[in-house]
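Exercise: predict the fold of this chain.
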Amino acid sequence: METVKRFEDLIVWQKSRKLAHKIYLLSEVLEIKRDYGLRQQVLNSSGSIPDNIAEGFERDGTKEYKQFLSISKGSAGELRSQLYRIFDRNILSEEEHQELHNVVIEISKMLSSMISILNKNIYAGRKYKSS
């Protein structure tokens, strides 16, 4: 795992931030605007991915970081499901759907890798370090 001092430097956070922006732009499409519930769900799940990466990073504890990465991964799965629903309603073309789906899968794999590395780490985190 890369050694970083700020969550903004994490590649997975950068990718998930860009994805959340793409989803926001998609949510401005008239057909999605009409379905307020789905629009809110897709905005919430896409925003949850980078937000939970950032929150977990800032908590300074390895167990908490893993928990928040897991929440991010769950939000990625939720977003994939919502993208299928949007595709099924003919709001996304097959090409647009596949492009977004691939990005979400890539982010999910990155999160899995980070969780796996943290599972092997015996370091509890900065907040547990003796002064």
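Check your answer against the key: Residues 11-121 form a domain with the de novo design (two linked rop proteins) fold (CATH 1.20.1440.60).
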